[in-house]
Specification:
The structure is a homodimer. Chain A is α/β, with parallel strands linked by helices. Helix content of chain A is 38%, strand content 16%. Chain A has helices at 20-27, 31-38, 46-59, 83-98, 116-125, 139-147, 172-185, 201-216, 233-244, 258-270, 304-316; strands spanning 70-77, 102-107, 127-133, 152-155, 167-170, 191-194, 224-225, 252-255, 280-285, 298-301, 328-331, 334-336. In chain A, strands 2-1-3-4-5-11 form a six-stranded parallel β-sheet, sandwiched between helices. The first copy, chain A, has a six-stranded mixed β-sheet with strand order 7-6-8-9-10-12, with helices on both faces.
Chain lengths: 349, 349
């Protein structure tokens, strides 16, 4: 970008010919004040800022002839505490680099919806695009991005994804189905699943696919579903403890992610249960280190780096002449059979 | 920042009153051409660019009254393929966020020195500062940053760190010493270490500390040192295979990082050796998942998030009135004793 043409003039005209001056007049403020709000700059009182945002949104204003954005793709995570996040970053970074873009990371410290400070700072940076991972931008935040011409993609969306926001995810339902088929084809009849929080659509889809496989296999009882457990090792330990304490415990457990599966390993070991002899375990993700767990974990491989790359392609596409991407990109998953699954003991039946 | 004052005027005067016009005159080009080079913009032929860079460097020019930089801290990694990287990112991100900055990530795909495309793109973004992780910026790249007033910090520097570049690392030598003392105090007499690449000063320091502990314990033989092995699981497997094939194999192995230690687990298992009964293992890093390995790994805890935070503080410090940081920040390490270490079998002695 050339810094020289980055002035207020550049966002003067938008869709339907709404100008900054029009918005200023309707809001009863000066045009520079509207420019400040559009560019995320400070120095505008909160109530004025909210009023101007509302008028911008209602007016249909779009910043269309602005100077080029900063060459950065932004990823917002709820938490940066698992290799899962790093795999996604790698995928985004590889595509971004090929297009001369950097990747910026922000974390909302576990908040589902990022705070207002986050969006104000982001508008100041004016990135090429934003990828929200397992995060739920508020309607106002989504509108703040679209009025500035900053495209948004969600990855593993939560709740009800906005209809006009493209999203990327794995074929989660199919992954649950693969896990269930693998276990039933080994002969397991007493299945359980450690579920993840229902607000993550991906977790809900994995569970539904798993239950569908059990149905299709004609099991006498549907799988026992644990209450929703956090997607961490500790969550897997607590849920597995409860499942394995039942009078007739399961012979196989499917977990919502790999970290929970490592929790099942720990819970089984404390009880003196051997994997896979006494208990089969299937995870979800195929994080790089689970092939080195003891025993190596059977899991559903989720193409996390490909998902990151797909999200980046959707954002970069418009500026490189790529045809518009479909509203929902779903990438395939695969069963990776390792040593944590085996036919059940006969006495366990 | 305000975009309006981001023009060529802003970098007109630098240290010793060298101006863009002076540089243009000496180079026999126009002032706008010099501005393009300073701002990382395209449209200047490579040979001209190199000539101008040389004159900028020789002239002592410093961009001092430029408009504020973009509110981003940049981290450059050689490889984004381990939780190690993510822990550092988390530390940088937490500090950056508190100061309203984003964190940008770039990866050099295993190259020790980033390419010229990387530096040109970075100069265009004009971040608040740069953290180079296990990377070695060329002298020219360092000079390109300093003439633009972009501060640089190295984290786990390689080779000979530049004298005027602040660096951050863990007390690696002390960590090696702790690992050696732990094993000798358990009674081990036949020690080995899987070393990392010597170009990483941190690996060399860990090795030296480990050897020093063996010396101090008066062992009959110094530790067997493997040839330098990659800092990955596969590197640990190959090196452990060689060490364990010796006529009198070691009873304890210290590794340059946790991933190598997981490789020792895999190599031991293939040989039917039990950890810690037949072989003790000590890693280095304390990545989040090694407490869940089987058995849980004894390791030297490296405060990776604190290291990332310290690097960010050094970069942000100057603009927030913090006194200048020392040229080398060394953070403490600690032994985390878990279940992979035990006294040696008597028959193993």
């Amino acid at each position: 970008m050339t810094a020289e043409n980055n002035g207020a003039r550049s966002e003067a005209r938008g869709r339907r010919d709404v100008t900054v001056a029009d918005i200023a007049r309707r809001a009863g403020v000066s045009a520079p004040t509207v420019s400040k709000v559009i560019n995320g700059h400070s120095g505008v009182a909160l109530d004025t800022r909210v009023r101007i945002e509302k008028i911008i949104e209602e007016s249909g204003y779009r910043r269309i002839d602005a100077s080029p954005p900063i060459a950065i793709l932004e990823i917002v995570f709820q938490a940066l505490d698992s290799l899962w996040a790093l795999e996604i970053i790698r995928g985004v970074e590889a595509v971004a680099r090929d297009h001369g873009l950097a990747v910026a990371i922000t974390e909302t410290r576990g908040r589902l919806t990022p705070g207002n400070a986050w969006i104000e700072q982001l508008l100041q940076r004016r990135p090429t695009g934003v990828i929200a991972v397992s995060s739920e931008l508020s309607g106002r935040q989504q509108s703040q991005l679209s009025t500035r011409g900053i495209p948004l993609v969600t990855l593993d969306p939560t709740g009800e994804p906005a209809h006009d926001t493209p999203s990327v995810g794995a074929a989660n339902w199919n992954g649950g189905l693969l896990a269930g088929r693998h276990l039933t084809s080994l002969g397991h009849r007493r299945l359980a699943m450690i579920t993840g929080p229902d607000r993550y659509l991906c977790c809900r889809a994995r569970r539904d696919g798993f239950v569908a496989a059990a149905d299709a296999a004609g099991l006498p009882e549907p799988p026992v579903l644990s209450p929703a457990a956090p997607l961490y090792v500790e969550g897997g330990i607590a849920a597995a403890d409860a499942l394995l304490s039942a009078p007739t415990p399961p012979t196989a457990i499917f977990t919502a992610n790999d970290l929970q599966a490592l929790g099942v390993y720990a819970a089984a070991q404390r009880r003196g249960l051997r994997i896979p002899d006494d208990l089969s375990v299937v995870g979800f993700d195929d994080l790089p280190f689970v092939r080195w767990s003891n025993p190596p974990l059977t899991t559903i491989r989720q193409p996390l780096t490909d998902m990151g790359a797909a999200a980046a392609h959707i954002l970069i596409g418009p500026s490189t002449g790529t045809p518009p991407s479909p509203i929902r990109v779903e990438l395939p998953v695969a069963l990776v059979a390792r040593a944590s699954t085996a036919p059940p003991h006969r006495h366990g039946q």
